[in-house]
Amino acid sequence: MNELGTYIQAKRKEKGYSIRKLAELAEISHTEVKRIEDGMRKQTSPQVLRSIATALNCPYEDLMAAAGYIDEPTVDADATAVAGIQNADDLSQEEIDKVNEYIAFLKSQRK
Amino acid sequence: MNELGTYIQAKRKEKGYSIRKLAELAEISHTEVKRIEDGMRKQTSPQVLRSIATALNCPYEDLMAAAGYIDEPTVDADATAVAGIQNADDLSQEEIDKVNEYIAFLKSQRK
DNA sequence: AAATAGTGTTGCTTTTAGGTTACACAGATG
DNA sequence: CATCTGTGTAACCTAAAAGCAACACTATTT
């Protein structure tokens, strides 16, 4: 079983779905779900991955990454985006370093 | 002709390649290149797109986006990622606000 | 115990991505 | 003029993705 199959099966069982239930939600055949989980597909189409991602309510990018179609979005990249830090696009390297220092300072001040 | 086909053909002609030359560089059949350019493929595989991107020396992500497989990387999202701000994933809202204030302060100090 | 519904699994069929070959038309070269 | 070489295009074939139908097994229900 490959990475994609492992990922999908884990998510599916986590949700308590049967193969058929997931297939129904994703509007694809249940045999296809099984074959993907078993790693019997060399090139599962992005279209199908998108359907499964929607059905599992998990990020499409994760499935694409598990399938080897894109690089894993780095944790740091996502984290900073989620964090809501604004207007950091045109900072110089010195300024970035200062911001990172400041973040470290803030964390050290936590009680 | 769809977006992907238009993009690839434009890049190909820009490089002065014939259909056959591009196919040779990408190590796929020239008929497949033509069909993709003509938009006769519903689901061109990411594998093939990767080969074409390499042959054309253009970003794979652009082809994936043109095919509708991924979203165009948003400028803002990339900007914060590129900025290199670290360990901001677990900041509280107050801390984020302070960081944003600090960034504004740094910018105001520029001469 | 028999019927029913749910589960995973497997063979068969259809559809389509991709390759191989061949065609028609140009321009260059003998 | 005839032959090669490169261009795009189209017909045919193969392999793989995806769907359909049926199987075996379990658990529940009548």
Q: How would you explain this protein's 3D organization?
A:
The structure is a homodimer of 111-residue chains. The first copy, chain A, is mainly α and 111 residues long. In chain A, 65% of the residues lie in helices and 0% in strands. Chain A is built from seven helices and no strands. The longest helix of chain A has 16 residues, at 93-108. The relative contact order of chain A is 0.11. Chains A and B meet through helix 6 and helix 7 of A and helix 6 and helix 7 of B.
Topology:
Two copies of one chain form a homodimer.
Chain A: H1 3-15, H2 19-26, H3 30-37, H4 46-56, H5 60-66, H6 75-83, H7 93-108
Helix pairs in contact in A: 1-5, 2-3, 2-4
Chain A binds a DNA duplex (30 and 30 nucleotides) through helix 3.
Key attributes of the depicted protein:
mainly alpha, homodimer, 0% strand, 7 helices, DNA-binding
